[in-house]
Amino acid sequence: MPLCSRHWYDSVFFIDINSKQGLTHYCQIFGCAHSALVNASVDNGLGTHQADLTKSQVIQLTKYFWLSGPMHDLAVNWGKVSAALLLLRVVDKAKSHALYFYLGITFLTLVNTTDVFIILGQCRPTEAAWNPLIRGKCWEKSIVKTSAYFQSG
Predict the structure, then answer these.
(1) Rounded to whole angstroms, how far apart are CA atoms 145 and 112?
(2) Residuewise pLDDT in 10s, the chain (153 residues)
(3) What SS3 class is residue 122?
(4) What's the alpha-carbon Rg for the chain, to the nearest Å?
(5) CA-CA distance, 20 to 73, in Å (whole number)?
């Protein structure tokens, strides 16, 4: 077990993009974080009719579900980056288009990372995004909506 844990630690923190796993560990880490946050949201009532929940449960489920979004974006990002790097490594024809792959990887990562900062930075304090009891200032919904459309397209 310790040897397995050490290998996993080394492969996450000392990533070799030419290894078989590439960046899939980041995909797994963010995917697990996303799943944990969605599960916490379900434990607090996600999927239950809101009329059957307390105000506290609604705030908690909204918080965990809201925080799961950036984790999902990053998990998908690193999965796609890992797949692109795999294609570059194993497909001969892809090597002649390496510049385009790297530009795509860079653009994808910039868009997804920017979206994470938009999600987390849209309200000050951040808690105002999911808790109506907190007084704060949030961006116009159109900014976040436009960002989401751009990121998903």
Answers:
(1) 14
(2) 444 455 555 555 555 555 556 678 888 899 999 999 999 999 999 999 988 999 999 999 999 999 999 999 999 999 999 888 888 888 877 778 888 989 999 999 999 999 999 999 999 999 999 999 999 999 998 888 888 888 776
(3) coil
(4) 19
(5) 23
Distances (CA, A) of 105 to 80, 92, 95, 101: 8, 18, 14, 6
d(CA 102, CA 100): 5
- The pairing of beta strand 137-138 with beta strand 123-124: antiparallel
Cis peptide before 125 (omega within 30 of 0): yes
Specify the length of the chain in residues.
153
Beta-strand (E) ranges in the chain? 123-124, 137-138
Q: Residue 62 in 3-state DSSP?
A: helix
